[in-house]
Amino acid sequence: MTPRASRAVLPVLASGLLLLASTTAWSHQGPTLQTSRATGPISIDGRLDEDAWAAAAVADQFFQRDPNEGEPATERTEVRVGFSDETLYVGVVCYDREPEKII
Known about the structure:
With 103 residues, the chain is an alpha+beta fold. The protein has one domain. The chain is built from two helices and three strands; from the N terminus they run αβαββ. It has a three-stranded mixed beta sheet with strand order 1-2-3. The chain is globular.
């Protein structure tokens, strides 16, 4: 992913995580995400290539809010969460069928 594409994805990612958090907070039987202790060091470099990420559970069943609330997401997204004694790690991969159209 290019630096330009990475910058474009961050606002979308933040919005999606807020939506997930707000949905979970208000629903007693809402979606859950299994977290796990990081099995080794994780570098904050935009890559999810460490063993800890490979071992983490993947959340990938997301739903739309706009334009068709409740429908399956039209683009694939994968979220992984891990933690250590000091840090919470959130790794997200957002796929796009037409990345060249990202502004």
